[in-house]
C-alpha cells in the first residue's frame, strides 16, 4: 500500500496523535543511526560511533604547483571513475592569491591515483600538468565542485562548483566533464557570508533544490570574524538566485571552531546529510618550537591542533551532534599535531562491495603534506550496539512502504539480533513477535529478516508500527524496507 493520498496519511497521523505520538513516514528510505531520529527507548543498548581505519597515503603534493599548503579537497565518484580536486600552493600567502591553482587527480578504484596531464593551463612554462583552474583568483583558494544530480541540469553544466572569498563573494562555475571549467556568470551568485573555508553545495533530492553550506562566525554573523567559526545555509532553485542565509544550530553543548563542515547527502540515504569536517583547536599547542623546526613546519602553523568530527542534518537549519567525540583522531607522530592538519575531503565514496573511503589532508604546512585514505564498512558511521548482556531498542511509531525488511548488521559468534514488530500502542503483532523472528547471527551488509520463514511485510505497509530490536553482542548499522 502506497501512501499516495495525503488524506489517508492524515487519518493515520490523526489516529496516532490520539494515542500520544505522531508517526514518522520513512517510506522505503534507508535509516542510519547517526542521530536519534527514530529512537524512542534504549535499554542495554547505546548509539556507538565507529572510527575509520587508516589505509595509508594515496597522494603526495610533490609537484612544483602543489606543495605544503595544498588542501580543501573534494572527491567525487562518477560512474566507474573517481575524481579528486584540491588546492595547489607551495607557500602560504593571503587567501585567494594568484599562486593558488586547482589540481585534479583520478582513479578507477579510489585507491590508486594518477595526476593526468590535462594540458589546459601553462604553469612554469609548460602545459604538462594536472591543473584544471588557474589565473582565477580568488576562486582557486577554495574551489569546491559537485556532480549535479538535478535531472533538469544541462549536459554542459553536469558539474558545478562554488568558490571565492568575502571580498569576491561566491562565484559559480560549470563544467560538462569535471575538467574544463567556465564561470556561469561574471558576478558572484551569493555574497552574504565570510567564506574563509571550503563552502559546499549540492542538489538535494529530498528538498528539490540546491543547498549551500558556507562559513560564518558565531558572533560576527554573515560578515564579521568574531566568535567561533561556524556554518550558514542558503538554498536555490537555479544555482544563481539564493535565499536569505540562516545560521545553523548545533543542539546542546558548547560551540567549537568548525573549520570545515563538508556537508553532503549520503549516497545510500540522500535524505541524511553527513558532515565530516575539521574541528580546529586554536592555541592548543602540542609541537614545540624545536620539534617544529625538525619537521620543517611553517612557523605560523604549529601552535594549534585539529581533528575530524561527524555530524548530520535532515534539512533545515539544524545539525545533529549526537557524537561530539573525535571521528578521526590525529595519528601517531608529531607531524599530525600541527595547525590545520587532519582535514577531511568533501564526500564519502564506496570503494568496494563492503567498504567506504574517506580522504584526509595530513601533514599540513610541511614538505611531507599528503592525502591519506581511511575506510569504514558501508553505512558504518554509527550503530545501535549491545554488549554480551544484551538489550533492547524501541523505535518511534512510523509508517513504511515495501514488502521486506533489509538490515546491515554484525554480531559475535555468541551474539544475535531479533526483531519484533509492534503496533503503535506497543503490542506485538501476531506472527511478527521476537520469538517468531529467525535469530540473526553473522556479519552482512544486506540481509532480509524473516519471521517463521516469512519475509512478507505487505500486510503491514501503510500502517503505524514500531520495531522492538532485541540485541546481544551485536551492532545494527542501518535498515530499510524494500
Notes on the structure:
- With 482 residues, the protein is mainly beta.
- 4% of the residues lie in helices and 41% in strands.
- It is built from 2 helices and 32 strands.
- It has helices spanning 6-18, 289-295; strands at residues 24-27, 31-32, 39-43, 45-49, 53-60, 71-78, 81-88, 101-107, 113-114, 131-133, 144-147, 159-163, 171-175, 182-183, 200-204, 209-217, 229-236, 246-247, 257-260, 263-266, 269-281, 305-313, 343-344, 349-350, 355-362, 370-377, 382-386, 391-395, 398-400, 405-423, 443-448, 464-481.
- The strands form 6 sheets. Strands 1, 2, 3, 4, 27, 28, 29, 30, 31 and 32 form a 10-stranded mixed beta sheet that branches. Strands 5, 23, 24, 25 and 26 form a 5-stranded antiparallel beta sheet that branches. Strands 6, 7, 8, 9 and 10 form a 5-stranded antiparallel beta sheet that branches.
- It starts with 5 loop residues before the first helix and ends with a strand.
- The model is unreliable at 1-12 and 14-19 (pLDDT under 50).
Write down the overall mean pLDDT. 95
Global shape: globular
The helix count comes to: 2
Structural class by secondary-structure content:
mainly beta
Main beta-sheet strand count, sense and barrel state: 10 strands, mixed
Q: In percent terms, what proportion of residues is strand?
A: 35-45%
Low-confidence stretches: 1-12, 14-19
Instruction: Please compute the radius of gyration using only Cα atoms.
Output: 24 Å
Give the assembly state of these chains. Answer: single chain
Amino acid at each position: 500500500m502506497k501512501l499516495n493520498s495525503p488524506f489517508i496519511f492524515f487519518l493515520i497521523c490523526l489516529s496516532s496523535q490520539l494515542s500520544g505520538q505522531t508517526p514518522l513516514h520513512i517510506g522505503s528510505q534507508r535509516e542510519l543511526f547517526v542521530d536519534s531520529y527514530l529512537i524512542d527507548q534504549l535499554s542495554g543498548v547505546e548509539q556507538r560511533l565507529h572510527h575509520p581505519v587508516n589505509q595509508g597515503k594515496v597522494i603526495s603534493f610533490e609537484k612544483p604547483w602543489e606543495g605544503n599548503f595544498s588542501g580543501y579537497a573534494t572527491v567525487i565518484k562518477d560512474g566507474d571513475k573517481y575524481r579528486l580536486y584540491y588546492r595547489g600552493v607551495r607557500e602560504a600567502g593571503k587567501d585567494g592569491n594568484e599562486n593558488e591553482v586547482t589540481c585534479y587527480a583520478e582513479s578507477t578504484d579510489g585507491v590508486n591515483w594518477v595526476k593526468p596531464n590535462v594540458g589546459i593551463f601553462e604553469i612554469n612554462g609548460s602545459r604538462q600538468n594536472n591543473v584544471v583552474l588557474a589565473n582565477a583568483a580568488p576562486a582557486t583558494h577554495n574551489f569546491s565542485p559537485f556532480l549535479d544530480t538535478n535531472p533538469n541540469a544541462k549536459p554542459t553544466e553536469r558539474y558545478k562548483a562554488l568558490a571565492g572569498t568575502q571580498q569576491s563573494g561566491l562565484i559559480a562555475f560549470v563544467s560538462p566533464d569535471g575538467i574544463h571549467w567556465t564561470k556561469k556568470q561574471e558576478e558572484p551568485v551569493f555574497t552574504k557570508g565570510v567564506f574563509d573555508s571550503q563552502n559546499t553545495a549540492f542538489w538535494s533530492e529530498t528538498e528539490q533544490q540546491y543547498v549551500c553550506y558556507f562559513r560564518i562566525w558565531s558572533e560576527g554573523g554573515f560578515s564579521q570574524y568574531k566568535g567561533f567559526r561556524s556554518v550558514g545555509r542558503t538554498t536555490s532553485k537555479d544555482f544563481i538566485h539564493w535565499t536569505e542565509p540562516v545560521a545553523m544550530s548545533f543542539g546542546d553543548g558548547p560551540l567549537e571552531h568548525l573549520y570545515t563542515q563538508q556537508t553532503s547527502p549520503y549516497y545510500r540515504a540522500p535524505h541524511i546529510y553527513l558532515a565530516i569536517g575539521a574541528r580546529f583547536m586554536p592555541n592548543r599547542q602540542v609541537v614545540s618550537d624545536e620539534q617544529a623546526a625538525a619537521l620543517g613546519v611553517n612557523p605560523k602553523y604549529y601552535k594549534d591542533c585539529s581533528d575530524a568530527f561527524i555530524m548530520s542534518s535532515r534539512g533545515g537549519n539544524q545539525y545533529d551532534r549526537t557524537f561530539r567525540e573525535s571521528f578521526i583522531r590525529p595519528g601517531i607522530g608529531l607531524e599530525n599535531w600541527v595547525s590545520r592538519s587532519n582535514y577531511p575531503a568533501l564526500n564519502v565514496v564506496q570503494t568496494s562491495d563492503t567498504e567506504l573511503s574517506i580522504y584526509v589532508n595530513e601533514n599540513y604546512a610541511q614538505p611531507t603534506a599528503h592525502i591519506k585514505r581511511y575506510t569504514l564498512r558501508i553505512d558504518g558511521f554509527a550503530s545501535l550496539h549491545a554488549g554480551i548482556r544484551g538489550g533492547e531498542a524501541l523505535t518511534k511509531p512510523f509508517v513504511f512502504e515495501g514488502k521486506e525488511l533489509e538490515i546491515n548488521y554484525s554480531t559475535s559468534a555468541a551474539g544475535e539480533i531479533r526483531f519484533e514488530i509492534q503496533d503503535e500502542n506497543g503490542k506485538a503483532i501476531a506472527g511478527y513477535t521476537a520469538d517468531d523472528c529467525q535469530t540473526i547471527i553473522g556479519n552482512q551488509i544486506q540481509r532480509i529478516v524473516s519471521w517463521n520463514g516469512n519475509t512478507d511485510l505487505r500486510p503491514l505497509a501503510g500502517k503505524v508500527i514500531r520495531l522492538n530490536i532485541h540485541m546481544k553482542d551485536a551492532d545494527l548499522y542501518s535498515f530499510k524496507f524494500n
